[in-house]
Design brief:
Strand content: under 5%
Largest sheet: none
Distance between the termini: 16 Å
Radius of gyration: 19 Å
Order of helices and strands: HHHHHHHHHHHHH
Structural class: mainly alpha
Number of strands: 0
Shape: globular
Length: 344
């Protein structure tokens, strides 16, 4: 695990951290797909986040993080419910029927929801022309991938799963916007741990309420699913999170945020190579269209922020505008979308 306190990173450390964020976070869709083959989806997510959150909480407190207050726990419960129960839980449930590659591409709709929600809120910010173009392109990419003309009378649970994935993206966006103003601990590590603990606990409650515990047969769980769960806990949550936090300290936000473009591609390739998921022309076209839209929206946001900073440094008058942090990647975005990531 990379030490976030390192001040002078070696080239090898930087490359290894980027590889972790690119490949590990992109591979979590594959791991979820393998995990839900024999593990109930909400139980899988609950065990994963309670375990990872507990370990991270203990580490944060041991490193001197202050004891959180009740209002901190309330905020963590709301954010964990939206991000991990609604967002990641939706991904786990949908991947029982939807290929990991398709799930990864549909989850890239998060930045589109973020822009629209930020526009729709009271005194919201109207998206720029470039962002509107990105929204239109992204919507077209999703329609290519889902093929709405076949929704009626075809696909069964698969079609429902695709709708659930889009809904999960919406819930993640709502949680991300809420977290920007929520009262949270000063320690990003402790804040993330609390959100994982509460989100995981809610997933376990839903698992019990939906009867997963009654249907669960531990003897039927395959070794592959157990390994997938362990991978999601250790690598997807703990290693990926630490690498991302460390990169935010030693690299530029523009470089670190490139994971948003790479993760869906990694997920598509791994789904095809490991699980033999179909990779036809429509998937390729949709992947290109969606990634292009994400690039347009996120790079324009960064450029606008850079222009604002430059104007401030030169003493020019700057009209305040609220920027939207895109939180794209397989449910691995920050709890407050401002450099405090919540891994998946």
């Amino acid at each position: 695990m990379i030490d976030p306190s390192a001040n002078r990173p070696s080239t090898f450390s930087v490359v290894a951290a980027f590889a972790a964020v690119y490949i590990i976070w992109g591979s979590t869709y594959l791991a979820i797909r393998v995990g839900v083959e024999t593990l109930p989806p909400f139980l899988l997510g609950g065990v994963r986040f309670v375990t990872a959150g507990g370990l991270l909480y203990g580490w944060a407190r041991a490193r001197g993080a202050a004891r959180p207050s009740l209002v901190h726990w309330r905020s963590a419960t709301i954010i964990g419910g939206l991000l991990l129960l609604g967002g990641n839980g939706g991904v786990c449930w949908a991947e029982q029927w939807v290929e990991s590659s398709v799930a990864a591409l549909l989850i890239t709709s998060v930045p589109f929801w973020m822009v629209l929600l930020n526009w729709a809120r009271p005194r919201g910010v109207r998206p720029s022309g470039v962002e509107i173009v990105g929204l239109i392109i992204g919507f077209a990419g999703v329609m290519i991938l889902v093929n709405p003309t076949s929704l009626a009378g075809a696909g069964g649970y698969r079609r429902i799963g695709e709708v659930v994935l889009l809904t999960a993206s919406l819930l993640w966006a709502i949680g991300s916007l809420y977290s920007r103003h929520a009262t949270l601990p000063k320690s990003p590590l402790l804040s993330t741990a609390m959100q994982m603990l509460m989100g995981g606990a809610l997933l376990l409650v839903v698992s019990s309420a939906t009867g997963e515990w009654n249907r669960f047969d531990i003897g039927a769980v395959s070794p592959k699913s157990i390994l997938a769960l362990a991978y999601l806990i250790v690598f997807g949550a703990l290693v990926g999170f630490t690498a991302y936090m460390w990169l935010l300290r030693v690299s530029t936000p523009a470089r670190v945020s490139t994971y948003a473009y790479v993760n869906p591609v990694v997920a598509v390739v791994l789904g095809w190579a490991v699980l033999s998921e179909p990779l036809g022309p429509r998937t390729f076209v949709a992947m290109g269209v969606i990634v292009t839209a994400v690039v347009l929206i996120t790079t324009h946001r960064r450029q606008r922020g850079a222009r604002k900073k430059a104007a401030e440094l030169t003493g020019e008058t700057v009209i305040p505008r609220v920027s939207v942090t895109t939180c794209t990647a397989p449910m691995q975005r920050g709890p407050n979308c401002s450099g405090k990531p919540t891994p998946v």
